[in-house]
Design goal:
This protein is α/β, with parallel strands linked by helices. It contains twelve helices and eleven strands. Belongs to the nitronate monooxygenase family. NMO class I subfamily.
C-alpha cells in the first residue's frame, strides 16, 4: 500500500495506537469507518483461534463490495519470548492487514510475509539507535514512541525524535507521545511525521475494551495524575497514579525494582495490566466517554483549524527567524 493510497483513505492522519487489553475489533472497525487507522495487538487474543475470529471480522467489515480495503493494522511482538509469533504471522498472511506494526524486537521476521501480499511493515522504536536498526533491517516505516506516551514510553520529545529520524530515514514516519488533539497532530505533521499515534485519546472510546472504571479514571485524570516507572513491567511505562493506589501500590515508592520482562501472550502477561491502568500525557484531552466517530470528528476539526492557522501565518509573511 503506497503512501498516496494510504493517505487518500484518511480523514485525519492518525492511527488509534494498538493498546494491550484495550484495542479490539470494535475499535479497529469504528476507526476505519471514521477515517483513521485502527490497530490492535495480537496479544489481546488468548489463542490463535480467537485472533482468527477477530481478523476475519475486521477484514470483512473494512472491505467493500468492490474489494477496496480501508486501512487497518495489527501489532505483532517479535521478541523471542513470544511463543505464538509463527501462528499469529500465519493468520496475518491469511487476512492481510495493510499495515503490520512490530514491537519489542526486529521487524525482520515478518518482512517477507507482509511484503509478499503487498503490506507495509512498521517498527515500533523507542530511541534513535533502535530506529537505525529497524531501518537497516528493511522496515517500511518507523513508529517513534516518544516521551509522554501511555504504557511503555520513550524518553525523547516527539519533535526531537522526528527530527533525528528524518535525518537518515525517508520512509513512513509515525510519531506518538503526549499528543491528544488535532492541533498536536498538525504540529507533528508540520515537523516531519506522516502519521500520528493517539492511544490515550481512544482509551475512553465507547468501542474500547477498557472496563468502565478505567474509562472513568481516564476522563477524571490530568497529566499530573501520571507516573513513569519500570517497577511494574521491567520497562519504563506511564501509569495512572490512582490505579496504582487502588491496588495497594504506593506510586512514590516503586524505586528501581525491575521485574523480568515477558512478552508472551497469556495470563501472566495480562495480569500486570488488567488492574494497573496506563495512560499518556494526552489524558487531559479526554473529557467524556464518546464514540470513535465523534472523537475523529473533533480531531479532524482541530487539525483543519491548525492547518489553516499555519497557512494564514505563511500568507501574512510572518517570520520568526
Amino acid at each position: 500500500m503506497s503512501r498516496p493510497t494510504l493517505f487518500g483513505e484518511l480523514q485525519v492522519p492518525v492511527i488509534a495506537a494498538p493498546m494491550f487489553l484495550v484495542s479490539g475489533p470494535e475499535l479497529v472497525i469504528a476507526a476505519g469507518r471514521a477515517g483513521i487507522i485502527g490497530a490492535l495487538p495480537t496479544q489481546n487474543c488468548r489463542t490463535a483461534d480467537d485472533l482468527e475470529y477477530w481478523l476475519a471480522q475486521i477484514s470483512e467489515a473494512l472491505t467493500d463490495a468492490d474489494g477496496r480495503v480501508l486501512p487497518w493494522a495489527v501489532n505483532l511482538v517479535t521478541h523471542r519470548t513470544n511463543a505464538r509469533l509463527a501462528d499469529d504471522l500465519a493468520l496475518v498472511a491469511r487476512y492481510r492487514p495493510p499495515l503490520v506494526i512490530t514491537a519489542l524486537g526486529s521487524p525482520a521476521p515478518v518482512l517477507d510475509v507482509v511484503h509478499g501480499y503487498g503490506g507495509m511493515v512498521i517498527a515500533d522504536v523507542a530511541d534513535v539507535p533502535l530506529a537505525r536498526k529497524a531501518a537497516a533491517a528493511g522496515a517500511d516505516g518507523l513508529a517513534c514512541i516518544s516521551a509522554g506516551a501511555g504504557g511503555h514510553t520513550g524518553a525523547l520529545s516527539p519533535f526531537a525524535f522526528t527530527a533525528a529520524v528524518r535525518s537518515f530515514f525517508d520512509g513512513l514516519l509515525i510519531v506518538g507521545g503526549g499528543i491528544g488533539d488535532g492541533y498536536g497532530v498538525a504540529g507533528a505533521v508540520a515537523a516531519g511525521a506522516d502519521l500520528v499515534y493517539l492511544g490515550t485519546r481512544f482509551l475512553a472510546a465507547t468501542e474500547s475494551m477498557a472496563v468502565a472504571g478505567y474509562k472513568q479514571m481516564v476522563v477524571d485524570s490530568e497529566a499530573d495524575d501520571l507516573i513513569v516507572s519500570a517497577g511494574i513491567t521491567g520497562t519504563p511505562a506511564s501509569w495512572l497514579r490512582p490505579s496504582l493506589r487502588a491496588n495497594g501500590i504506593d506510586p512514590d515508592a516503586l524505586g528501581d525494582t525491575t521485574p523480568d520482562r515477558s512478552y508472551s501472550a497469556g495470563p501472566d502477561a495480562a495480569r500486570r495490566w488488567k488492574d494497573l491502568w496506563a495512560a499518556g500525557q494526552g489524558v487531559g484531552a479526554v473529557t467524556a466517554v464518546t464514540p470513535v466517530a465523534d472523537i475523529v470528528a473533533d480531531l479532524s476539526a482541530q487539525y483543519s483549524q491548525a492547518v489553516s492557522r499555519l497557512a494564514s501565518r505563511t500568507l501574512e509573511g510572518i517570520c520568526y527567524a
